[in-house]
Structure to design on (758 residues):
């Protein structure tokens, strides 16, 4: 039975109590019957004590009092029945002994009930607390289990009592159980955290305090334990600790030195990175900046800090900060203030970010920008970036300079500014090149003139291509080259070339002088002969006028022929360049063939001309074109001059290629071009001739390329050399020109038979 179970005192009689009371009544009746109606000379009434003890076990004070009174009356009544008036002193003494025993037992039972009631009150008080309180003996068997324990662990007292405490609650100790009991025996108490499992399977953490209860002799008797559920507290503590760890880890791993400082500048916290930098925050104190900031940056840093402290505004500074190894690295130092309830700055929270790599990159960028600016200045090439979507522009400083805006670097680049500096005749071209809206052209490539307000004229070449889409923005990346110098040099070169061409023409004419003189004297002699004949026919009587007319016609024809030869020579001899105009290629070729005809005859050269049915037209400087033809004819003739045997043949052929170009081929039957000479054939001053200048082919190439064509020599030709010129056809409206007509007349009827052979 549970020592502390006193519930009998106040609870209504239980079934067992009723049974006990019935047994007590039977015992009382039995004792009375024996006492009153038998002749036993013993103190039978003493057995009423048993009745009293049975009633006392029900825990009722009233029952004990009434039972005590009743059995006393029954004792006296039994005495009366058994002795009537005849009683001895022995019988009286036995009756008194019985009454004393009944009285004493009643008193002791009442006292016992009083003690039990007090104990019950104590137990009720223990049940009032929310703490789990229980008692177990030295074997671990539970002897007391309060309501708090029932609430915490879920087991009712009826179930818990008698169970082994550690088995019932599956206790897990922080250290060995024996150590705990040893401490308990040693100090009499132990406190610590235990893990236990509740009836519903919940795991709880409790703070347990246990005390050893010893008896009067000091012998351990039982253990009193209290438990407080700290599971929630523990969980919160764990969550809090986890968050703190995460926060700390985040602060420690932030790629920067995190710190907090008082408003006076005293550092109160630094993260791990900062600690690793080797700075001793304890000793630096308020003079922190002096300890870590580079002397050259210190004044600026202090000034910024003082401004922030005075104004309460965020700190933003870039300085070199000393590292553990004594080196300095560039850091961005930023801090924000935190205010207290009164609005005063309570603390500064800052982070120093290492920007050394960025600084190095910036320096490199600055250097490369400086190089670029220098290079752009030297090469007179500016760069222009344009967004084709909205027309936003970016100019380099050299582009500003080329456009003459170098004094106004603040102005926003725009197409209007470009047009304002464009030569009026080129504006339409420039505007057209910047029309992106219809279709985004992959490449812009134009040359135009820039006209500055002071009248300075520049030639520029602008090339831009659509950059790779590094971002979502499309952009033209372009180069604006000031080609004024190049253009001037080119013009000077062209002038020199023209001079040289003139010289070579004159040289050629000089070489042909004898033949030409012969060619001119021939029609003049014919005029004289025809004049004489005309005179003779006139002097006849009657004069033969039809013969005179025929002779005069002959004279006119000869004069025209002489005149045309002179015109050709004068044209070849002229110095100033003629404007380009429509030229019939065949006429130009025929003119030169005519000019060369006497020389061909003299040297035994046979010249064949093959040409197509259509008359290909070119937009060209006719004299330059003729110079090319005469150069090639002269070279062909000179190449064949050494031929001992075999025909001396020049074949001239014109072909129209796909209606866009015309090709003129001049082939001779000479020795051809040596393979090793092919590379240098068109180079100036390359000659294999004893008296050659080596400028003929070079001039030919310049002229042909200036006309948008190209010239080449076929070194693999089986017979002699073949030079091929390709030139763009002129497809514009046809002019009516005297020269062309005259040349056509000179060249005679078109040889369509040869055309078919070509
Ligand atoms: P030059 O006639 O003063 O030598 P060119 O520039 O006209 O200068 O010719 C350069 C060289 O090309 C000649 O010296 C010659 O070796 C070669 N060449 C030109 N035309 C022919 C040709 N039709 N056949 C063979 N070699 C030629």
């Amino acid at each position: 039975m549970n020592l502390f179970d006193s519930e009998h005192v106040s609870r209504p009689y239980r079934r067992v109590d009723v049974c006990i009371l019935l047994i007590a009544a039977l015992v009382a009746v039995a004792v009375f019957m024996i006492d009153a109606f038998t002749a036993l000379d013993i103190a039978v009434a003493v057995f009423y004590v048993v009745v009293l003890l049975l009633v006392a076990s029900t825990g009722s004070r009233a029952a004990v009092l009434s039972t005590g009174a009743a059995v006393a009356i029954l004792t006296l009544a039994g005495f009366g029945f058994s002795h009537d008036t005849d009683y001895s002193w022995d019988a009286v003494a036995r009756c008194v002994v019985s009454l004393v025993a009944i009285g004493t037992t009643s008193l002791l039972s009442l006292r016992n009930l009083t003690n039990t009631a007090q104990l019950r009150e104590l137990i009720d008080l223990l049940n009032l607390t929310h703490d789990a309180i229980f008692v177990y003996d030295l074997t671990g068997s539970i002897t007391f289990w309060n309501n708090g324990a029932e609430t915490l662990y879920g087991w009712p007292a009826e179930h818990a009592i008698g169970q082994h405490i550690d088995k019932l609650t599956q206790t897990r100790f922080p250290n060995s159980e024996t150590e705990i009991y040893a401490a308990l025996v040693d100090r009499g108490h132990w406190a610590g955290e235990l893990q236990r499992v509740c009836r519903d399977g919940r795991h709880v953490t409790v703070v347990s305090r246990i005390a050893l209860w010893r008896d009067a002799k000091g012998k351990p008797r039982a253990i009193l334990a209290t438990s407080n559920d700290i599971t929630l507290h523990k969980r919160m503590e764990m969550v809090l600790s986890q968050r703190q760890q995460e926060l700390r880890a985040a602060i420690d791993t932030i790629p920067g030195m995190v710190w907090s400082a008082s408003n006076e500048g005293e550092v109160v916290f630094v993260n791990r990175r900062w600690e690793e930098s080797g700075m001793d925050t304890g000793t630096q104190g308020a003079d922190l900046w002096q300890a870590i900031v580079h002397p050259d940056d210190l004044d600026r840093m202090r000034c910024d800090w003082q401004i922030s402290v005075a104004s309460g505004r965020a700190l933003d500074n870039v300085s070199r900060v000393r590292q553990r190894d004594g080196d300095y690295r560039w850091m961005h130092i930023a801090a924000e203030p935190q205010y207290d309830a009164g609005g005063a700055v309570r603390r500064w929270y800052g982070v120093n970010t290492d920007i050394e790599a960025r600084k190095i990159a910036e320096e490199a960028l600055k250097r490369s920008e400086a190089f670029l600016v220098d290079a752009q200045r030297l090469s007179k090439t500016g760069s222009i970036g344009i967004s084709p979507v909205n027309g936003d522009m970016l100019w380099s400083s050299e582009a500003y300079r080329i456009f003459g805006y170098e004094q106004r670097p603040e102005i926003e680049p725009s197409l209007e500014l470009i047009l304002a500096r464009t030569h009026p005749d080129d504006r339409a071209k420039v505007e057209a090149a910047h029309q992106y809206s219809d279709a985004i052209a992959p490449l812009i490539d134009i040359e135009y003139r820039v006209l500055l307000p002071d009248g300075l004229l520049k030639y520029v070449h602008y090339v831009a291509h659509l950059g790779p889409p590094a971002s979502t923005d499309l952009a033209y990346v372009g180069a604006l080259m000031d080609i004024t110098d190049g253009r001037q040099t080119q013009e000077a070169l062209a002038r020199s070339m023209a001079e040289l061409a003139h010289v070579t023409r004159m040289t050629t004419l000089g070489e042909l002088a004898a033949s030409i003189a012969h060619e001119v004297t021939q029609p003049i002699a014919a005029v004289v002969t025809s004049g004489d004949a005309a005179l003779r026919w006139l002097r006849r009587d009657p004069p033969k006028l039809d013969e005179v007319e025929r002779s005069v016609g002959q004279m006119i024809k000869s004069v025209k022929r002489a005149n045309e030869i002179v015109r050709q020579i004068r044209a070849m001899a002229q110095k100033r360049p003629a404007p380009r105009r429509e030229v019939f290629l065949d006429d130009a070729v025929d003119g030169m063939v005519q000019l060369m005809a006497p020389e061909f005859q003299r040297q035994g050269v046979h010249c064949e001309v093959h040409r197509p049915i259509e008359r290909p037209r070119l937009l060209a400087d006719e004299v330059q074109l003729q110079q090319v033809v005469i150069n090639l004819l002269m070279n062909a003739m000179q190449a064949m001059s050494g031929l001992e045997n075999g025909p001396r043949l020049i074949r001239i052929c014109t072909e129209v290629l796909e209606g866009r170009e015309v090709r003129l081929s001049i082939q001779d039957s000479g020795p051809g071009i040596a393979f090793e000479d092919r590379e240098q054939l068109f180079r100036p001053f390359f000659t294999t001739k004893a008296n050659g200048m080596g400028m003929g082919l070079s001039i030919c190439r310049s002229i042909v390329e200036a006309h948008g064509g190209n010239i080449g020599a076929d070194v693999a030709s089986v017979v002699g050399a073949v030079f091929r010129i390709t030139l763009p056809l002129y497809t514009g409206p046809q002019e009516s020109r005297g020269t062309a007509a005259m040349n056509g007349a000179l060249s005679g009827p078109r040889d369509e038979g040869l055309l078919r052979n070509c």
